[in-house]
Amino acid sequence: QEVDMQAQAEGIRTVFSDPTNFNVKHPLYSAWTLWFDSPATKGRNLPQTPISGFPQTPVPQTPGASVALGWMEDIKRVISFDSVEEFWGLYNNIIPPSQLPQKANYYLFKEGIIPAWEDEANKNGGKWSIQLPKDKNRPNIDKMWLYTMLAAIGETFDPYLTSGEEISPQSLITGVIVSTRPQFYRLSIWTRLAPSSTGTEDEQDRKLRERVETIGKHFKTSVLGYSDAHKLAGPLATEVEFLSHKDSEKKGKSAKKIIV
Amino acid sequence: SYNAKTIPPSLPSALATARIIDDIGQITYPEGIKSPKVELNINAKDGKFKYDREFLLQFMSICKEKPDMLPPLDAIGLEPTDQNHSMSRGGSGRRSASAM
Question: Which of A1, A169, A255, B77 has the highest CB neighbour count under 10 A?
Answer without folding.
Answer: B77
